[in-house]
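subagent[fold] <- orchestrator: predict structure for attached chain, return tokens only, no commentary.
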Amino acid sequence: MDPLGTGTTPPATAGGALWDGFSLEMTGKDVAALERARGTLPPGTRVNVTFLATEDVGTRLDAARAVRALGLVPVPHIAARRLTSRADLEHFLAGLRAAGASAEVFAVGGDPARPLGPYADALALIRSGLLTGHGVRHVGICGYPEGHPAIPGDVLWAALRDKADALAEQGLTGSVITQFGFDADPVLAWIAELRRQGVTLPVRVGVPGPAGVRRLLTYATRFGVGTGAAVARKYGLSLTHLMGTAGPDRFLRDLAAGYDPDRHGAVGTHFYTFGGVTATTEWVARFRAGEGG
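subagent[fold] -> orchestrator:
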């Protein structure tokens, strides 16, 4: 059984089950960095390719092709509110299929406050009926353990349930990638609540790769992630020495210590490369080796 779609069965140890088969994120401009990091990534590692407003379709498709050429699995993002038309979505999906990169995608609403076209959110993408016709078999969706700065909690829960149901209706498998955080406790509590709500999709916990403290705090503020003094100390962040760097060692160990397969189901990790692809992949390799992974 391969509940996280990693191509291997997760080991029995709690730590190994969480970070073996990890995935990570890149932008379309990170191809050279990914090529340099190739030696630190297990074959078949899933690499999410973001859908940034500053990058065009060609850049995104080139990045997806490069991921595949390196023996990794591309997971292109599709930002619903950035699509201007149905034809825009079809064009991108056709490009992914031609590149051999359409089997897995990640559906996200995107940053614009108002949709640029007919798709208001990830649910609309799933319900469009276009994904399966272009070879998509697996769709990742978002989860927000600490909430969303612009969306009420009850709306987030309803959207998650609706997306899980829509995936099943479309004959697609799915998984949830969470927003990053600095405290494992609310993440584990959120996953337990997800299961209580009847959503059984595998979860990949969003983990910030090693990065400068200032940068981590900037992203946290942008995405509504808690950075109170107690949380900062727990993670190893210094709110007074912003020139330093911080890695997720403590967070991952806390996550492993609190993880209960019977309660939380299939759980893995997804690394956000805030400090760069190379720094993140090298850190993950060292961490996994040190943990016996």
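orchestrator: received. Logging for downstream: The first strand starts at residue 23 and ends at 26. Residues 164 and 177 are 13 Å apart (CA to CA).
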